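#random but structural
TW: two for the price of one
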Amino acid sequence: MALEASISNLTTISDLISEFGTRLAEAEFKFEPLQQAHSNFCFCSEDTTGVIRKIEYDSSTNSFIGFSTPITDGIPSVRHFQANAFEDLKMLYDTNEMARLLNVHMFQRIPTEDNPKIFPKPCLLSAYGTDNRFTSIDILRRWIYIFQSFLNQGVRIIGFSTDPPHLITKWRNRLLSSTANLCYGNDKISIKHIENLIDNTNYTKLVHGLIMSDINPKDRQNYHSCIKLISDDVLNLLKSDANANGTFAYLALLKMIMKAYVDRSTNVLERISPFLN
């Protein structure tokens, strides 16, 4: 579970790293530790956490950190916020947003056959403030950049990891949104179809397993309710309702995403087969 402000800000991370004799510049990717790698294979991860909004001056880079870092072709701009006069600093504050989120990249070497019992510790690759406004293409370009940079150091990345449950809850939250107008062809996708199931006196909780708190839009991180919404019982009831075709298709697709990207019990063939049919 992500605890907002459990990492106060980028300065805290920089101070911790400085204790070990190294420096971290905001948005800079540190590929130098790869030269000391005892394995030619790594796994990378990327995640975002909430932080306390705070702007500080970094004397080592002559730049201010704590603003939302601009993204260009998926890559964050290093030392972007610099000011040589008070008016420059005022302009930075007036035209840029303080970051409410911290995006962190980590990597971990994979044990080799020579040392199968030695598990290398994960290492910090980069960290920077963000407003989380970037596209899937930005993410792909960033991953390609990281992959190629590792390859130039003689290290191959075998996979990237993010936090997939967030995708599932966002999918659910879109369904619960009072402002979203979702359609599947001519069929409407609406939470009203789920409400009708819960309110229908012909069905009890034992039939569909749902309660009203499962569709509470204020509970935006209710991952367990996502599981209940895509149960076979709920999908079968929606499928039998001709007016709920759009909602059925929406939740059926969500179930495919769950099986492909989240459910650890799903084997490789089961993960890809729904997308090949």
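TW: number two ↓
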Amino acid sequence: IDETLEIGRRPDGDRPDAVIGGVTPTASVTEALEQLDRQADAAGFRGVRPMGRFAGPLPHVDVLRALRDRGLVFEVLARPAQLEEAARGLEGLDDLVVVVEHAGWPATGDDDERAVWRRGLRALAGVGPAVHCKISGLAAPLGTLAPATLRPWVEEALDQFGADRCFFASNFPVDGLHVTLDGLWDAYSAVTADLGPAVRDALFAGNAERVYGI
């Protein structure tokens, strides 16, 4: 929260076009709403992601409703085993703009986890058109971003959400343990080489610009 406020005080041209702040998992509903209020006037503030782990994959539904009513984004940070639970918790919040962080945040990329991950993505994609998938953070669980390894994960996300609800992102500095920044974008480019220019433009820029109001 303090970082969001500090960034918001920076002059134009010296801050990101959009900032995702946070709410603390241990906060009561009243405290969480106060945290949203503190960040509301920060320049570029667009929404929140969890700062730490909630008891479940989502904060209290009243916090989610407040995000919806304020036109803010909620970023889901949940492991594959929690994705279906997250999908159930989002039912009835059709107008809440949601971004699934790190393509569902797999931990190992093994076959068993991948099956759970696939079901979870399907459940979240089925919640409604306001739920999006940020394809990022895959270098750590996969141990590589070689196109042959990365491609099936990207294709699964695209199959579940559609190209209009996915976008690419980095997870630096964590990704830097496995790939350079240029190498990351080269990998994304390689696995989408067969897609048309309009789809690639959406995945690399347009969808994120729309979701975050950039």
